[in-house]
Specification:
382 residues, Rossmann fold, 15 helices, Gfo/Idh/MocA family oxidoreductase, NAD(P)-bd_dom_sf, GFO_IDH_MocA-like_dom, Gfo/Idh/MocA-like_OxRdtase_N
């Protein structure tokens, strides 16, 4: 496909027809289809019965179990991946080579090596097809407003932040065979659950420079961790705490940023509205100033729809989407650094992890007690 995108609806293929496709991606796509922005032309799934039922239910003309054949026959403009992270690399590369843009559900890929391989398959021109990641919390109206306040210096210098994704998952959740395994889920709560809040924290705070992490397997019989914490330093000197858990009965997702002139906080679970944000001015800040800070504008909740609107507009106008390329990689890099720091008991700095580092290709890094049983590292240890 050429870098020029016609005003016709983007021909879109949905790959993976499970719960996330039904609950989040398809409603967003159908809303934009009603606006004439996209046209859902194909569905692909390894389960033939499931994909045919999905296509019949939602009036999708092409149903297939073969992604490559679908790409060749249908020639979609946009491929939406709602599949497990273990296949994101190969499916993204296939779509890019077929000339389609990619919107990939999180986690992005099981490793930085996989993510970089996807980037290497892109033509390199911002107006040409690229892969982007579902990080929808960046795209609600409140996050846009707070990001502008922080970037413009209105709240003063950010000083200290707290970011938590403290959720609860029971034993039945981990009875599903692919969960809690490095190869199929990509990681524990740092990767699979808390990555959305981590991504929003980075979007608001800017570049990080160093991290010190801890991880533990306290309850669940899994390969990955079930809780992690980290201390993070940012380029401007601010420091933050990061907590990810699936052991917390009182579930909450929260970010708090204390700046020189105000504290900003969002508290929600799986998505926020404007009302979930609070800005508390420091003593001496004029009330009219604080009132302007609290004007978040028209409420657009964080959602797949909010991000998809921006992605489609970016594609049409030849712009790099914010969660593509380096904009998506930085979040995966921080998560990778958390695992490396936790498993090696060292401080990890931004840019440290590259080709030749065991954590570049596997988030467990071959660490004793964390690498899956049967890997060369585990056998050496034995």
């Amino acid at each position: 496909m050429s870098s020029h995108v016609s005003p016709a609806p983007l021909r879109t293929a949905v790959v993976g027809t499970g719960s996330i496709a039904r609950s989040s991606h398809l409603p967003a796509l159908r809303r934009l289809a009603a606006d004439g922005e996209v046209e859902i032309v194909a569905a692909v799934d390894v389960n033939g019965e499931a994909v045919r039922a999905f296509a019949d239910e939602f009036g999708i003309p092409h149903a297939s179990t073969d992604l490559d054949a679908t790409l060749a026959r249908v020639r979609p403009d946009l491929v939406v991946l709602c599949t497990p992270p273990s296949v994101h690399r190969e499916q993204s590369v296939a779509a890019l080579r077929a000339g389609a843009w990619v919107w990939c559900e999180k986690p992005p890929c099981p490793s930085l090596a996989d993510y970089d391989a996807v980037g290497a398959a892109e033509p390199g021109d911002d107006a040409a097809p690229y892969a982007s990641i579902v990080f929808q919390h960046r795209f609600g109206s409140a996050a846009r407003h707070v990001r502008a306040l922080l970037r413009g210096g209105a709240l003063g210098r950010p000083l200290v932040a707290h970011c938590q994704t403290t959720w609860y998952r029971d034993r039945a959740y981990y009875a599903v065979p692919w969960r809690g395994r490095w190869a199929t889920e990509g990681g524990g709560p740092a990767m699979g659950h808390g990555i959305h809040q981590t991504d929003l924290l980075l979007d608001l705070m800017g570049p990080w420079t160093e991290l010190r992490g801890m991880a533990a397997r306290l309850v669940h019989d899994v390969e990955t961790e079930d809780v992690s914490t980290a201390l993070v330093r940012f380029a401007d000197g601010a420091v933050a705490t990061l907590v990810n858990s699936v052991l917390s009965p009182d579930e909450v997702s929260r970010i708090r940023i204390d700046c020189e002139l105000a504290t900003v906080e969002v508290t929600h679970l799986y998505g926020y509205r404007n009302a979930d944000w609070r800005i508390t001015p420091a003593p001496g800040v004029p009330e009219e100033t604080a009132a302007a800070w609290r004007d978040f504008g028209v409420d657009e909740p964080s959602s797949h729809l909010a991000q998809l609107r921006v992605l489609v507009d970016d594609i049409r106008n030849g712009r790099r989407h914010a969660t593509s390329g380096a904009g998506g990689r930085r979040t995966l890099e921080l998560v990778t650094a958390l695992y490396k720091s936790a498993f090696t008991d060292t401080t990890v700095r931004a840019g440290d992890i590259g080709p030749g580092d065991p954590y570049y290709t596997e988030l467990h890094g071959g660490a004793p007690g964390w690498a899956p049983a049967g890997t060369p590292e585990e056998e050496d240890q034995a």
